[in-house]
Amino acid sequence: DVKVTQSSRYLVKRTGEKVFLECVQDMDHENMFWYRQDPGLGLRLIYFSYDVKMKEKGDIPEGYSVSREKKERFSLILESASTNQTSMYLCASTLETGDNQPQHFGDGTRLSIL
Amino acid sequence: SQKIEQNSEALNIQEGKTATLTCNYTNYSPAYLQWYRQDPGRGPVFLLLIRENEKEKRKERLKVTFDTTLKQSLFHITASQPADSATYLCALAPADAGNMLTFGGGTRLMVKP
After folding, report:
1. In principle, which of A69, A88, B7, B83 could form an S-S bond with A37, CB 3.0–4.6 Å?
2. Which CATH number do you get for residue A59?
């Protein structure tokens, strides 16, 4: 089974801090994604990566950046955390093929910005 | 703008009955539609994928339909059990989106014994 591991289940940070959220997958998947999930808004895509050092903006990239130095690891960075970035953050991965593939999710990081 | 709608109100049903969840979309021409289950405090888990040229897909007690004319997918759980209680998300992708998905807000299902 594919395992997607997010480094923290819960995280509390202060406004203005630089925050790193880490995600690791163990199945050699090409594609990795970062979402945030908020009540009433569903999952919204922040960034995705289709290869090492490659990234594309999703629907809500403002205030975030990402890093993918190794295939198995995809990091989400909040450059200067703000209270409106308090949310559940979910990482996912898929194997690249020509067809639509299911996404495999981690269990999320619940981030609170005080 | 593109919109995916799932009933935001919880669906409460009795154990043994069939649960039917709805996913409607507008201003969208998806080639694929996926359904996920999400338990509290956990990430979504993939259940089923259906393509635009497929009308129906089944997996054990699960059945998904995809009507591109009505712009709607229905997700059925037959002989529902309390363990089926969770939030169910639909997700859509156009043909050229690779593995990108757009998610609906999810519907919470409560199955009472």
Report:
1. A88
2. 2.60.40.10
The answer to whether B44 faces chain A, any CB pair under 8 Å, is yes
pLDDT along chain B (113 residues), means of 10: 84 96 89 93 94 92 94 96 97 78 93 95
Our count of domains for chain B comes to 1
B110 close contact with A: CB closer than 8 A: no
Chain A residues with CB-CB distance to B104 below 8 A: 42
Q: Tokens representing A107?
A: 């269990």
CB of A4 within 8 A of CB of A104?
Answer: yes
Q: What is the pLDDT of residues A55-89, one digit of tens each?
A: 999 999 999 999 999 999 999 999 999 999 999 99
- Quick one: pLDDT band at residue A90, thresholds 50, 70, 90? very high
Tokens 């289940």 sit on residue: A9
